[in-house]
Design the sequence.
């Protein structure tokens, strides 16, 4: 691990565990035969990630991967309203940010739900924003993989409750697509988003079918969709059998819950068990200090 890649400045919270150690590979399942893959990594990124990274490509639709960080007791947001981001969950782990940036660098489209947009004040879902120290390496990787300079951002909303002045809509280098049911799309068109934010109407229901969302990503040219949406978006993808892989950071924090602070878990809004419960296959385990970085695959027949 080169120290330049991982920020070793002191962490902002006194109680946060250290999260800046290098990644080391503890376990990796043998690679399965696949018709096509995206990746591998150049030497410097491979060293930083503790090994290579490839993502299998599907012929029938884009491969859908998701990235999350959760506490040991399963919280993905610390405040009851889901207004805080993953940083507080990970203890502001720079290693987690590095992996997030790496996954963005491998994706064509980053998918987020309106809840995550409302919780974020940041300038969007680019590799460099996740981990500025590796911006040049991410850029080179995308060039080497023949990808667009930045992944597009695809935002899904049913309410249309999004602020057109949000910083995420102000990065001219990142294509932004807002998708919602027909009535919502109409409202979004009247809401004053920047001209280059594309608005897509997907169906007449109250919500967008996850299949329609991933098909939109396909029409946008995506072979790999990275879901950085919160627990409602990932629940929809998992329930529809569209979640191929999950990159899950386990932060060594216990936060608990009581009646006043329920805290969001990884999947919300849809109960999968018993009919649609899904068993994953563990593909790899990495460790950085006390954080674990888990990669799961969810085969289509895993229910
Ligand atoms: N720990 C982590 O790694 C991590 C990752 C991501 C997010 N988070 C946190 O999770 C919290 C937000 O949770 P969340 O569940 O609200 O986030 P989310 O899943 O990104 O957003 C949920 C919202 O997305 C829209 N949506 C989702 N599926 C839809 C569908 N099929 N059709 C139409 N609209 C759809 C709806 O927006 P409308 O309400 O506008 O209708 C819904 O309320 C935040 O605190 C965020 O920081 C944590």
Sequence:
């Amino acid at each position: 691990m080169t120290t330049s890649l991982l920020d070793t400045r002191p962490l902002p919270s006194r109680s946060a565990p250290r999260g800046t150690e290098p990644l080391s590979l503890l376990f990796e399942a043998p690679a399965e035969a696949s018709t096509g893959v995206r990746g591998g990594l150049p030497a410097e990124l491979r060293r930083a990630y503790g090994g290579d990274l490839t993502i299998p490509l599907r012929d029938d639709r884009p491969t859908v991967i998701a990235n999350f960080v959760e506490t040991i007791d399963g919280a993905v947001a610390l405040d009851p309203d889901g207004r805080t981001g993953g940083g507080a969950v990970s203890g502001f782990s720079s290693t987690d940010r590095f992996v997030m940036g790496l996954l963005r660098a491998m994706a064509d489209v980053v998918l987020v739900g309106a809840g995550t947009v409302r919780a974020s004040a940041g300038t969007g879902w680019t590799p460099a924003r996740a981990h500025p120290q590796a911006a040049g390496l991410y850029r080179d990787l995308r060039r080497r993989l023949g990808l667009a300079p930045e992944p597009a951002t695809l935002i899904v909303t049913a309410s249309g409750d999004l602020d057109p002045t949000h910083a995420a809509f102000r990065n001219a280098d990142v294509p932004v697509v807002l998708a919602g049911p027909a009535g919502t799309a109409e409202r979004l068109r009247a809401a004053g988003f920047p001209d280059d934010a594309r608005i897509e109407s997907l169906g007449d229901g109250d919500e967008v079918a996850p299949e329609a969302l991933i098909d939109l990503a396909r029409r946008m040219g995506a072979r790999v969709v990275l879901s950085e949406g919160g627990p409602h978006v990932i629940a929809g993808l998992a329930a529809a059998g569209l979640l191929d892989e999950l990159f899950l950071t386990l932060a060594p924090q216990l936060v608990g819950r009581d009646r006043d602070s329920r805290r969001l878990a990884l999947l919300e809004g849809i109960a999968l068990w018993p009919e649609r419960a899904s068993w994953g296959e563990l593909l790899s385990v990495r460790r950085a200090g006390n954080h674990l970085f888990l990669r799961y695959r969810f085969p289509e027949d895993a229910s």
Notes: Residues 68-69, 76-77, 82-86, 89, 112-116, 119, 156-159, 161, 180, 207-208, 210, 228-233, 236, 264, 268 surround NAP (CB under 6 Å). The two ends are 39 Å apart (CA to CA). The longest helix spans residues 94-106.
